[in-house]
Amino acid sequence: MVCSALRRVAHMHVYLVRKASSVSKGHHHHQALGSRPAASEFAARRAPGSVVELLGKSYPQDNYSNLSQKVLSRVGRNLHNQQHHPLWLIKERVKEHFYKQYVGRFGTPMFSVYDDLSPVVTTWQNFDSLLIPPDHPSRKKGDNYYLNGNHMLRAHTSAHQWDLLHAGLDAFLVVGDVYRRDQIDFQHYPVFHQLEGVRLFSKHELFAGIKDGESLQLFEQSSRSAYKQETHTMEATKLIEFDLKQTLIRLVTHIFGDELDIRWVDCYFPFTHPSYEMEINFHGEWLEVLGCGVMEQQLVNSAGAQDRIGWAFGLGLERLAMILYDIPDIRLFWSEDERFLKQFRVSDINQKVKFQPLSKYPAVINDISFWLPSENYTENDFYDLVRTVGGDLVEKVDLIDKFEHPKTHKTSHCYRITYRHMERTLSQREVGHIHQAVQEAAVQLLGVEGRF
User: Fold this and answer.
1) pTM for the complete prediction?
2) Residue 34, CA atoms < 13 Å, CB-side half-sphere
3) Residue 331's closest CA among 318, 345, 344?
4) Cβ atoms of residues 156 and 144 within 8 Å
5) Pairing relation of β-strands 285-295 and 309-316?
6) What are the tens digits of pLDDT across the range 116-169?
């Protein structure tokens, strides 16, 4: 991992700061995209014992800490709360739909909305509260951004489910930025935005209007199957599933229009069962747009709502916005280019908008090959390093070749890095400096042996 490499080579942070500073000289003109590999880019990668300041709080760092300054610079941007940003438009459309469709007894909205909860959560909130086992692969440092062993940047808005249920809420939406270490391409970015929905039902609420509903029960003691949990009756499960799917069909129809083909795919989540993904047929292609399911009763019980049963769903705002507005590259959501932003300044949030592409400047492609170290290497470490050095100039990174030496049994990877500026043409010389910094950082931080 990057942090273990830092422990092995403690002086390397100083090396990278000096190297990054030298790379940046003479290339100030692409600073607008936040891509210049300056000294501050590596400031968060400190040795254990140091402290990182974030959102007014201090977090001691340890051997779990793996945050780059590039990612930290995105914390607090809250694109989903910036008026007329495309992610804000999607959020507001979902809010408006739920406010109008679901009204309480006194004419007030049934669903509460929380869109400013801190993205810093405990590992208990992000994993344990959601029944994610200690050895589950989703906990890996290679997939998450940890401040330390106890705190992290949330990997999903589900991290707030337990707290809100414990506070007594039974219908709410949570919207926020989430953070995951991932591959680099036009659909993936280390920061994206999710919208989570939860609703609980009492026995009376679920069976109201059902013939002989007073004789039906929410709970029983039986065995778990592919169709239900061991504590839920089949009647309750089917009604929850029906309400959930109808709720989501109405939502996506509101967003995309009536002429929409929808299908449901069975899937697995640790915190719901049964679980489903919704796919929509958009321009002839089936696209997954959200995940959902019947909430695990163990989670609901632990939060103090033992007499209720519920559903939950989660969707990605970028995913919906890219489909709805035909936005081709996820990096555009972070653009401050007026040509992009002005297209979404509409008087009505439901107004149709079709993104008019900015001029697409040519790509500059460079390959990098190296022998992997014997241990502590993951592809996400390399992707995170490339993002840190190259910033938003990096459009995608593809692993194009793997090779195992027949005698030494060492493994070699070859990656193709595509650099493209969103607002101007890059020169090979300019990219060459950045690419060299990537090469040297990979050797020094990840312990690879260069083949360049």
Assistant:
1) 0.86
2) 17
3) 318
4) no
5) antiparallel
6) 999 999 999 999 999 999 999 999 999 999 999 999 999 999 999 999 999 999
DSSP result, 133-191: -TT-GGG-GGGS-BSSSSEEE-SSGGGGHHHHHHTT-SEEEEEEEEE-----BTTB-SE
**What phi and psi values does residue 399 have, to the nearest 5 degrees?**
-80, 105
329 close to 357: Cβ distance less than 8 angstroms: no
Q: How far apart are CA 57 and CA 121, in angstroms?
A: 12
At 226 the three-state DSSP class reads coil
Pair of tokens at residue 138: 């989703």
Q: DSSP per residue over 337-396, as a string?
A: -HHHHGGG--SSTTS-----PPP-PPPEEEEEEEEPPSSS--HHHHHHHHHHHHGGGEEE
Helix (H) or strand (E) holding 232, with range, is none
pLDDT digits (tens, 9 = 90+) for 222-250: 999 999 999 999 999 999 999 999 999 99
- CA–CA distance, 296 with 95 (Å, rounded to integer): 25
Q: Note whether 228 and 258 are within 8 A (CB).
A: no
Q: Tokens representing 2? A: 């990057």
Beta-carbon contacts of 217 under 8 Å, excluding residues fewer than 6 positions away, are 203, 233, 235, 236
* Distance in angstroms (rounded) separating the CA atoms of residues 79 and 95: 16
Q: Write out the H or E segment, with its range, that includes residue 59.
A: strand 57-60
